[in-house]
Design a protein that fits this description.
The chain is mainly alpha-helical and 456 residues long. The chain has a single domain, classed as Amino acid/polyamine transporter I. The chain contains 20 helices and no strands. The radius of gyration is 21 Å and the shape is globular.
C-alpha cells in the first residue's frame, strides 16, 4: 500500500540509458551486510572502549537501535522513490530547497569519503604491520589502496559487487573467529566478566560525565553501523528495488547489530579496555589473548580484507551519488557521464577518488570515523523528518510504510548523538565545518555556471 493506503501498480520500467540492473535480492542482502561490516568494528572498537571502558557492548547496542530507527525511514523512501541519489533526492522532494539538497548530498558524499579514508588508514595500520613490520610508509600505502579500488570500480558494478560478496564472506569469517574464541574462553572459564559493567573510562565520577561518555562512545561506535544508507544509491542497479530493499536493509542491520554486540562482549571479556584503546587492530589483540592457537598473521590478513571492503563500497557509493546528483541537476551534467561499454560513472569515480586521497592525510582512524558518524547523524535527522513530510506525496505503486513513531524517535536520537553532549573532539567539528564550507563554495560555482549557460 502507498502512504495514501490505496492499491497501486508496479513502478515504471527503467528509462533508456539507465544503469544496468545487476543486483538481485540475495546479492543485495550480502551487499548491505558487507557495507555495514568492516572498518568500524575491526578498527574503532578500541577507541570506543577508550571512551566508555569495559562496558563496550552498550554503545553498540544503543547504536543498533538508532540504526534500526533510521533504516526504517530509508526503507520507506527507497521504496517510494527507487532512484539513485538517496538522501539528496528525499531532501529535495520534501523541502524543495536546492541549497539544502546540495548540502545534504555533499555531507553524504564527504561521509563516504571520510569513511573510505578511515579504512585506508586502518589498512596501513597495525593489521598490515603484523604482516610486513613497520617498513612501509602508511600514507603511500593508503593512497595506492584508494587508486586500486577506483580502478576496480571502473570495471563495472557487477565486478565491484561480486568482489564485495567475496570480501563480505571473508570479514564475516573473521568475526566468526572472534566469536568462536569468545565461546571457547567462556567455556574454559577464562575472561573477566566484571569488565562488562566497567564504566571507568567514561564515568569520571558524575552522572553527567557518565552520560557524555556513553553518548560519545555511541556516536563513535555508530560509525560501525553506517553503510545501510549507501545501499539506497544502488536502487537503479537493483532488480525490483521496491520489494527487495525492505528485507535486505532490515536483515542487514539486524545481522550486523547482533554480531557487533557479541564481538564487543568478547573483546571486553578477554582484553582490558586500555589495551584495546591503544591498538588500531583491536580484534587482533582479542585473538592474541583468546588462548586459541589461531595464526595471528592470518587474522591480520582477514582484517585487511574487511577494511578493503568498507573502502570499496564507500568509493562505489560516492560515485553513484555523484551520478544521481548530476541527473537531478545538483552537480554539473558531466558528473553523470558513464563509460559507453561498462556503463560505470567514470567522472564520478575519478572525482571522489581524488577527494579520498586528499582526506587520507587529514586525520587518524578515530577522527575520520567520528567525522563520518557526525556528518551522517546530521543527514539522518533530516531524512527522518523528510519521511514524515513526504507522507503528503503519494505515489502510484506499492511500498513499505514505517510506523510514524520510528522516524520521530530516529530524528531525536540522531540529533542527540550529533550534539556536543556526545563529547567528541573539536577536530571533528572543525573538519566537518571545513567540508561543508567547501560544499557551499562549490554550490556557488555551480550556480554561476548554470546562470552563464542560461540554464537557471
Amino acid at each position: 500500500m502507498t502512504a495514501s493506503g490505496t492499491p497501486t501498480t508496479a513502478p515504471p520500467p527503467a528509462e533508456e540509458g539507465a544503469l544496468h540492473r545487476a543486483i538481485g535480492p540475495k546479492l543485495l542482502i550480502l551487499f548491505v551486510i558487507g557495507d555495514i561490516l568492516g572498518t568500524g568494528i575491526y578498527a574503532t572498537t578500541g577507541k570506543v572502549a577508550g571512551k566508555v571502558g569495559g562496558a563496550l557492548w552498550l554503545p553498540f547496542a544503543i547504536g543498533f537501535v538508532v540504526a534500526i530507527l533510521t533504516a526504517a525511514s530509508y526503507v520507506e523512501l527507497v521504496g517510494k522513490y527507487p532512484k539513485a541519489a538517496g538522501a539528496a533526492l528525499y531532501t529535495q522532494k520534501a523541502f524543495k530547497t536546492p541549497f539544502l539538497t546540495f548540502i545534504i548530498a555533499f555531507m553524504v558524499m564527504c561521509s563516504g569519503l571520510s569513511s573510505a579514508s578511515a579504512a585506508a588508514r586502518a589498512f596501513s595500520g597495525d593489521y598490515l604491520a603484523e604482516l610486513t613490520g613497520d617498513a612501509l610508509p602508511p600514507t603511500l600505502i593508503a593512497i595506492t589502496f584508494i587508486v586500486l579500488l577506483a580502478a576496480l570500480n571502473m570495471r563495472g558494478v557487477s565486478e565491484s559487487v561480486k568482489t564485495n560478496v567475496v570480501l563480505t564472506l571473508v570479514e564475516l569469517t573473521g568475526l566468526a573467529i572472534i566469536l568462536g574464541i569468545g565461546a571457547y574462553a567462556v567455556l574454559s572459564g577464562d575472561g573477566e566478566p566484571s569488565r562488562l559493567t566497567d564504566f571507568e573510562a567514561g564515568g569520571g565520577g558524575t552522572a553527567y560525565a557518565l552520560m557524555t561518555g556513553v553518548l560519545g562512545a555511541t556516536a563513535l561506535g555508530f560509525f560501525a553501523f553506517v553503510g545501510f544508507e549507501d545501499s539506497v544509491n544502488m536502487a537503479e542497479e537493483t532488480k525490483d528495488p521496491v520489494r527487495t530493499f525492505p528485507r535486505a536493509i532490515f536483515i542487514g542491520v539486524a545481522v550486523t547489530g547482533t554480531i557487533y554486540v557479541l564481538v564487543a562482549l568478547v573483546s571486553s571479556l578477554l582484553v582490558d579496555y586500555k589495551t584495546l584503546e591503544g591498538s588500531s587492530g583491536p580484534l587482533l589483540e582479542v585473538v592474541k589473548a583468546g588462548g586459541v592457537d589461531f595464526p595471528h598473521k592470518l587474522f591480520a590478513l582477514i582484517a585487511l580484507f574487511a577494511v578493503t571492503n568498507s573502502a570499496l563500497i564507500n568509493i562505489m557509493m560516492a560515485s553513484r551519488l555523484c551520478y544521481g546528483m548530476a541527473n537531478e541537476r545538483i552537480l554539473p551534467r558531466a558528473m553523470g557521464r558513464v563509460l559507453s561499454k561498462r556503463r560505470t560513472p567514470v567522472v564520478g569515480i575519478v572525482f571522489v577518488s581524488l577527494l579520498a586521497i586528499g582526506l587520507v592525510s587529514t586525520g587518524e582512524i578515530e577522527g575520520l570515523g567520528d567525522t563520518t558518524a557526525f556528518l551522517l547523524l546530521c543527514v539522518f535527522a533530516v531524512v527522518n523528518v523528510a519521511v514524515l513530510v513526504l507522507r503528503r506525496d503519494p505515489v502510484d505503486h506499492a511500498h513499505f510504510r514505517t510506523p510514524t513513531v520510528l522516524p520521530v524517535l530516529g530524528a531525536v536520537t540522531a540529533l542527540v548523538l550529533a550534539s556536543p553532549l556526545a563529547d567528541r573532539p573539536a577536530e571533528v567539528y572543525i573538519r566537518a565545518g571545513v567540508l561543508i564550507a567547501i560544499g557551499v563554495a562549490l554550490w556557488g560555482v555551480n550556480k554561476a555556471v548554470l546562470k552563464a549557460r542560461g540554464e537557471e
